[in-house]
Amino acid sequence: MTDRTAEAPSSATLSSTLVGRLRNAIMRGDLMPGTRLNLDRMRASFGVSLSPLREALCRLENDGLVTIVDQRGYRVTPVSAENLAEVIRLRVELEGMALREAIQHGDIAWEGRILAALHQLNRCKRSARSSIEEQEVWELAHRAFHAELIAACRMPLLQQFCATLHDQSDRYRRIFLKTHTPDRNVAEEHAAIADAVIKRRVREASAILRAHIERTGRNIQTALDHGLCST
Amino acid sequence: MTDRTAEAPSSATLSSTLVGRLRNAIMRGDLMPGTRLNLDRMRASFGVSLSPLREALCRLENDGLVTIVDQRGYRVTPVSAENLAEVIRLRVELEGMALREAIQHGDIAWEGRILAALHQLNRCKRSARSSIEEQEVWELAHRAFHAELIAACRMPLLQQFCATLHDQSDRYRRIFLKTHTPDRNVAEEHAAIADAVIKRRVREASAILRAHIERTGRNIQTALDHGLCST
DNA sequence: GCGCCCCCAATCATCGATTATTTTTGAATC
DNA sequence: GATTCAAAAATAATCGATGATTGGGGGCGC
């Protein structure tokens, strides 16, 4: 899986950097779900040749952000209420499993990293009037916090699945809750999860995480229903 | 995800057919874990250009059969006891979840398809003296049976995860249990699963499936430990 | 003799052009 | 007016060649 946090520092191949750029464009909704991705035009607008572009799109297909049909090109993966429901459901199950494992295996240093990630996240301003850059920083910190929660689970494949699902879930949130100001105190929820995790309260932690994910899911689902009706 | 059953009938792009050929080569152990995949030599031996080759390898990376390192080429994903353990663990959890959902949602036609798949599977001869082709047919039927069990779960993403994990698990089995004659009556286990599923006995079905997966896992793990020591 | 640096061969990454496929368009027919 | 077929335009897939990057081996200084 491509690293989402570090922006390809040294040994970055052109394809890899493209993956990052395209991922951001899709996640933030610059490229809306269902959009056809014309190769020639993309080649022109990104200033690259077809080979790295194809490779980047192929890698994004793995993350479920792009859909390929042989001989018929690429498009941004469409959205649907059913797909969102499945993403949320799987996030609950898989992140829950990962969290339980992490609590079982994590050491003190891991607890420290969770607190650090939480602190970093809380330092991000996030309101309706935040600049794009500020929001972007919050997204990164938010992603990092959730990743850290399950980082100690010793199951790399599972972490990868969770990352993929989180990507897809974030895309929905960022597109359909774009105008939606945070209605609930998300920061408190994060703090509660971190607290329960560090106190090694397995049941409590996974219950809060589940609620956290499902609440977000319901909010998106509502917005999605309205959005799809009006379109 | 690429279709594993149909061998790219009509609108097959060169890359797609390559994916199938390479997947088979890796799954059956012609290309052993860890092998470096030299692009030039492969280009020559498959008689294609670099573009479709790269694309095929990229798609196989998604399935976890090939590992890419920027600027340093491709290699067949290595194996390890830890990885195998995680694959088995995740198969148990995810296929279990999928099976429970399928039992809940499946209709009569689905039951019929399960029985059909089981029948097809039982008609395959499988012994130490089977020809390669016969073994290949069994592998396909086996895969189809397991896929059918969870086909009614209404969770396409979950099915995809299961398919990926099954691929990885099958690779281990086919490489490390190559000489190993089936020690137990696998056919009976399959019949028992199908029976429990059709009788809608959720707990019983998932318990048998779990045992089925874990037993195979233990056998592979044993062979793997010996194999890795002797190498 | 040992370690470091630079150069060369091998190999991966990228490009621009060519070929094959799909989609559109437009004219002829029913 | 709708339908069907064929040619043309658009677009995707593939190729062969060119431009980077890496890793190994010989030469130089210490």
From TrEMBL, chains A, B:
<dbReference type="InterPro" id="IPR036388">
    <property type="entry name" value="WH-like_DNA-bd_sf"/>
</dbReference>
<dbReference type="GO" id="GO:0003677">
    <property type="term" value="F:DNA binding"/>
</dbReference>
<dbReference type="Pfam" id="PF07729">
    <property type="entry name" value="FCD"/>
</dbReference>
<keyword id="KW-0238">DNA-binding</keyword>
<dbReference type="InterPro" id="IPR000524">
    <property type="entry name" value="Tscrpt_reg_HTH_GntR"/>
</dbReference>
<dbReference type="Pfam" id="PF00392">
    <property type="entry name" value="GntR"/>
</dbReference>
<dbReference type="GO" id="GO:0003700">
    <property type="term" value="F:DNA-binding transcription factor activity"/>
</dbReference>
<dbReference type="InterPro" id="IPR011711">
    <property type="entry name" value="GntR_C"/>
</dbReference>
<keyword id="KW-0804">Transcription</keyword>
<keyword id="KW-0805">Transcription regulation</keyword>
<feature type="domain" description="HTH gntR-type">
    <location>
        <begin position="12"/>
        <end position="79"/>
    </location>
</feature>
<protein>
    <submittedName>
        <fullName>GntR family transcriptional regulator</fullName>
    </submittedName>
</protein>
<dbReference type="InterPro" id="IPR008920">
    <property type="entry name" value="TF_FadR/GntR_C"/>
</dbReference>
<dbReference type="InterPro" id="IPR036390">
    <property type="entry name" value="WH_DNA-bd_sf"/>
</dbReference>
